[in-house]
Amino acid sequence: MHEDANGAGHRGEPWASPSGVDQEFLALERELTVFLRRARASQGEMAREVHPDLESAAYGLLVRLDECGRQRATELAAYIGVGKATMSRQLRALEELGLVAREPDPGDGRAWLVHLTEEGRRRVGSVREARRARYVSKLAHWDRHEVAELARLLQQLNRGMEK
């Protein structure tokens, strides 16, 4: 009996597939499922560290604004993969928490640009720094080239999923 990353046991070959699916893709699915479950839980924790009333899903918006600066709501919605109404609701909530602000787009007077407030930048920066420190601690036994290769492969996976 073999145990997977979730602690569940499996009889026979650890990667055997009765349907004939490639073993590598079954392993990928299994590991991504565990990784994504942990990432969702971690995102919720990080959101609460930024602000106790922050929705987990809004954390990604703050990170995007921290990395890219001012953006239109439509750009943020497309990047996150949500509709305009959902984006408007999330941005309103972030404004009420004092984490983001809007300003007129100088290139198009009908549009608005969203950006982190100083408080938002401070809080997001603090949480991101703590997260990076956790990665450094958890992966301290990894060779730096392995960490770089993992980052490269994840970037490749993310780009492939965009298509």
Protein model, in words:
The longest helix is centred in the first third of the chain and has 28 residues, at 23-50. Mean pLDDT is 87; it is low at 8-12. The radius of gyration is 20 Å and the shape is globular. It has helices at residues 23-50, 59-68, 73-80, 84-96, 118-138, 144-162; strands at 2-3, 9-10, 71-72, 100-105, 108-116. Helix 3 (73-80) crosses helix 4 (84-96). The strands form 2 sheets. It has a 3-stranded antiparallel beta sheet with strand order 3-5-4. Strands 1-2 form a two-stranded antiparallel sheet. The protein is of the alpha+beta class and 163 residues long.
Assembly annotation: single chain
Strand content: 5-15%
Main sheet overview: 3 strands, antiparallel
Q: Average pLDDT, to the nearest integer? A: 87
Helical amount:
55-70%
Helix and strand pattern? EEHHEHHEEHH
Q: Rough shape?
A: globular
Supply the number of helical segments: 6
Distance between the termini: 39 Å
Rg result: 20 Å
In short:
The protein has 163 residues and is α+β, with helices and mostly antiparallel strands. The chain contains 6 helices and 5 strands.
Which features characterize this protein?
163 residues, alpha+beta, 3-stranded antiparallel β-sheet, two-stranded antiparallel ribbon, 5 strands, globular
Q: Topology of this structure?
A:
Elements: E1 2-3, E2 9-10, H1 23-50, H2 59-68, E3 71-72, H3 73-80, H4 84-96, E4 100-105, E5 108-116, H5 118-138, H6 144-162
Helix pairs in contact: 3-4
